[in-house]
């Protein structure tokens, strides 16, 4: 397994914090802050697509 480089935590209202990370192999990771050993992973392009779709409002129905 490659080394994951984590970004600083992103925290929304109520201190719901998560972190994004990448590795040298081009994989992307999402984890709850403080629980980085339990992450979701996919390609960096999949993470970009997810973020774009969320910003476009396609996940608003989940809120």
UniProtKB/TrEMBL annotation:
Entry superkingdom: Bacteria
Protein's UniProt name: DUF397 domain-containing protein
């Amino acid at each position: 397994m490659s080394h994951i480089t984590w970004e600083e935590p992103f925290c929304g209202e109520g201190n719901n914090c998560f972190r994004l990370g990448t590795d040298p192999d081009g994989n992307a990771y999402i984890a709850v802050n403080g629980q980085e050993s339990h992450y979701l992973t996919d390609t960096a392009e999949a993470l970009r697509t997810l973020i774009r779709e969320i910003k476009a409002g396609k996940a608003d129905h989940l809120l």
